[in-house]
Amino acid sequence: MVTTTNLNFIKTAKQLQ
C-alpha cells in the first residue's frame, strides 16, 4: 500500500538524482 509520505519521498529522491 502506497502512502502519500512514500510518494513524496520518491519524488524527492528522483529530484536528487
TrEMBL record:
This is Cytochrome oxidase subunit 3. The keyword Mitochondrion applies. It comes from the Eukaryota. Keywords: Mitochondrion. It comes from Pyropia tenera (Nori).
